[in-house]
Every structure is written in structure tokens, then in C-alpha cells.
Amino acid sequence: MSLSEKVCGPCNYFTPRLSEEDIARLSQQTLGWSVLPDGKICRVWKFKTYAQALTFVNQVAVIAEQENHHPDIEFGWAYVTLKCTTHAIKGLSENDFILAAKINQIQLDQRPVATL
Predict the structure, then answer these.
(1) Rounded to two decimals, what is the model's pTM?
(2) For the chain, which terminus, N or C, has the lower number of CB atoms within 10 Å?
């Protein structure tokens, strides 16, 4: 089953962090996202207008609410930066990659740029 077909499960401080091998495997299914050294994954999008960026953020918010897993969002004039982590474990869980895969399915007039 692909990540985008899965559903985020509940997490708490007993949820295990992903191993380096699991992170590498799941990263292959979330193209465009970079693994950061602080236990997050990140992707940046560029848009033509502020309104397009805001529309994208609103679509991300719908997915995040459906999955009950919420990325950190930074946006401004024609850009959006998303960072995903599992706050309860201060690191990455499968939920972060499920959310990233679902966000990658959003279709907009967007130009992803290099990630952090």
C-alpha cells in the first residue's frame, strides 16, 4: 500500500522514532521532501501569487485536519514552506511521510523549489 493510501495513526511519547533505514525507504515515496538533521522533513513551494500560496495552505490544512497530523507552515508572498515532525517523539514517524505523500498529491499551478 502506498503512503498516500494510508491513514495517520495516533501518536504519543511511546511511538518509536523511525530508523535511518525506514527514513531512507519512506523518503523514496515522498519526492521533493528533504530530511533535516533536527528530526523533520521539509519542502518549499513557489507560486505566482500570494493568493495561490494561501489556496495551497488551505488545502494542506484540510488534509492535516483529516489526518489529525499537522505540519508547521510558513508562507508569504508566493511561497510556502512545510515542515513535518511528530512532536510527541521529537522526531519522525510514519505519519510524517503519510502526510507528505498526501500533500504531494495536491494539484496547483506551483513550482517546487529546492528544499532546506
Answers:
(1) 0.90
(2) N
